[in-house]
Specification:
Blueprint lengths: L5 E3 L11 E4 L2 E9 L3 E7 L3 E7 L1 E5 L4 E4 L3 E5 L2 E8 L6 E7 L2 H4 L21 E5 L2 H13 L7 H17 L4 H11 L4 H11 L6 H7 L4 H8 L1
Parallel strand pairs: 1-4
Antiparallel strand pairs: 2-3, 3-10, 4-9, 5-8, 5-10, 6-7, 6-9, 8-11
Helix pairs in contact: 6-7
Amino acid sequence: LYAMLYRFPPPPAEAADPTFLTAGSEIFAKLKIESKPGKRTVLVTEHMLIFVTKGVKLLHFAEETVRVSPGEVVLLRKGIYVMAEYVADGLDFESMMLFLPVKLLRVFVIPDGIPDTTPGTKPADYFLGFPATAMIQAFREGLRKYFEHRPSNLEALFPLKQQEILLLLLQGGRGPAVKAFIRAAVSDAPTDIDFLLHRYLFQPLSLAELANLSNCSLAKFKRDFQ
């Protein structure tokens, strides 16, 4: 039953895998290149930022299917999703995923009167996408080069790159929406557990994975559940 659910990023990613940027136990980013369409159910275990550079990414929700095209940037929360790639004849699909751990996102949660939100059932509760600005596109192009020319100090460098892109996302007219999205993504309120259990009750998840989805330790998850 567990094999039916693909866990991403995989625990752990192989350091020798050239499609992952890793340092020690940290997985920073993934380069995905596909030459044919694919579809799978994925447990996303880290919040992430998605850049599609070739082809179209499809995120299937109960209510609708969201298309992610080149030139867009997408924030995606941890959770279970049905994902697919659309590949035109003779072309490859290519995307990059930059992982955003909760401990990093919490640094960017600044009290400003935006209320905490409990997850809902709409795609907007898990997904925030919009056209990339010129600065974000420049960041994306720089990120792509790291897969070809890996610096030796990746462990020290990449947390700075994660902070850089978050600061870029918080700029401009989309800043309030990004901040609200981050606040909801890092919430560890006990009310989230009730929602998660109703949403994922029949999925092949361990207690540790449910705790991760609720942004808390296994011990806290058990206490809040009780």
